[in-house]
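Q: Sequence in, structure out?
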Amino acid sequence: MITPRIDGGVVTWDNDSETINIPCENSKFAIYNSNNEMVYVMCKSEELNIEQLNLYKADGSLFASIPPPEGFSFYYMLPYEGLGVSVICSTDNPAENRPDWHFKFDDISKTLIRHCPAY
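A: Exactly. Output:
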């Protein structure tokens, strides 16, 4: 099982006998999704004020880099049954009276899809 670690702006994990090092400014969350065998890394560039979710294959190659859903910002990630990993996003304009939502990553469209409210 891959276990990503964050240390000083670098996300690291071991893949077989190789150590993968991915630079990521202001990364607070990195998690492995065994469902699609990808490492999810939330990054934020303070200089450019840009948030992105980067998804890497186990070998360290970038699969997708996506912004938060429109009107939302990234909050945190956690393992979630049925999704593998849930990307929690928050908004100042609550959808259905809920400010925080679970989103799942769709491997085909490479987008986040709103799943259910986060409590």
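The first strand starts at residue 5 and ends at 7.
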